[in-house]
């Protein structure tokens, strides 16, 4: 996070608060959110994309306090399940600022979104067009919708988080003609208001050329729709997926750069196609919340394995950060509770779960005197860590603490064994 530094005795201080104080008060593991950092990233996106709408992708991390923060910062919100919608609404997010995604929204979820009056629904299948048409007709409402287009871009990221190549479950294929058919079907349904097209090519993307190809292809479809039906769709959403730095090797674009590039390509393509430039929106999740959080763990055991490397076991693991095991993601780690001048050694930070894939940080140099009781911080865990956390091995999920101006505020409490047992009704 932006507001982290070493204090006088070498321990990390976040937004004016010593991490040892956070650990003493809330226990470990704990996700520590630098609130001003999160807010400043919202503002960076909002000022770079000042004439566009910025939807925070809630799947990265959602709780009521964060909904309020992003709403205060003028963001819109993307949700993709009834559960995320419920959190958003219960935090007072204005429904008209919510977009509803998902490749398999249930009839109940669609009905709830209509009843709440969400600002837009992103259509993902022909069944969904039929379902939403029926529900809207029953209710006498005319929801605003986008059609999600699969543009056939191979995004350079992990296979599981790329979403625009042809062979996957999201959206309507452009190449196969389904996207055009879907747009025409929606235009023919007078109870649906087609606002535009949507494309999301994947996540943790650094190469902006994927967005350029995608923008060009959706605008080509937009021109085909105009030619066939005489309508120019007023909006275009280019999705999220902007990469963040997990280690010093990653070099992400600034929101300013992204805004410039996306606008330039959309304007150029609109000129070629003789289209009016549509109102743009984007959906960053990771880039807003990812860097604003670090996980604080306590070291339990330290094991040197035949001089190959040292295994530093912490009190969490794949249940609070599945990303290393699932995507082979790279993280870094640092001893947070003190400074050390001892030579570094090659360490692997592992968790307490019963499998050897339970790795938090694959390779990191930690001081050779790393020992039980030390606090270890793993930065960049704001996105897709708490939101993908599990109870594997009946490990209760950690709390989230927001720190600002030297004060800590619990925003998601730690799960307890009682919480776990409460579900076990057999
Ligand atoms: N919009 C749509 C339609 C999406 O599907 C996603 C992410 C986003 C926006 C936000 O993407 P972001 O800006 O956060 O990259 N669990 C994976 C990431 C899955 C992303 C799913 N969709 C991970 O931990 O890397």
UniProtKB/TrEMBL annotation:
| EC number of this enzyme | 4.1.1.20
Q: Which Gene Ontology molecular-function terms are recorded?
A: diaminopimelate decarboxylase activity; pyridoxal phosphate binding
Pathway, per record: Amino-acid biosynthesis; L-lysine biosynthesis via DAP pathway; L-lysine from DL-2,6-diaminopimelate: step 1/1
Entry annotated with the keyword Lyase: yes
Tell me the residue numbers annotated for binding pyridoxal 5'-phosphate: 241, 283-286, 384
**What top-level class of enzyme does the UniProt entry assign?**
lyase
- Stored InterPro entries: Ala_racemase/Decarboxylase_C, DAP_deCOOHase_LysA, De-COase2_N, De-COase2_pyr-phos_BS, Orn/DAP/Arg_de-COase, PLP-binding_barrel
Q: Which SUPFAM superfamilies does the record associate with it?
A: Alanine racemase C-terminal domain-like, PLP-binding barrel
- Binding residues for substrate, per the UniProt record? 286, 323, 327, 355, 384
User: Which reaction(s) does its UniProt entry say it catalyses?
Assistant: meso-2,6-diaminopimelate + H(+) = L-lysine + CO2
Active site, per annotation: 354 (proton donor)
Q: Which PANTHER family does the record match to this protein?
A: DIAMINOPIMELATE DECARBOXYLASE (PTHR43727), GROUP IV DECARBOXYLASE (PTHR43727:SF2)
Oligomeric and partner information: Homodimer.
Q: Which family does it belong to?
A: Belongs to the Orn/Lys/Arg decarboxylase class-II family. LysA subfamily.
Role this protein plays:
Specifically catalyzes the decarboxylation of meso-diaminopimelate (meso-DAP) to L-lysine.
**By what name is this protein known?**
Diaminopimelate decarboxylase
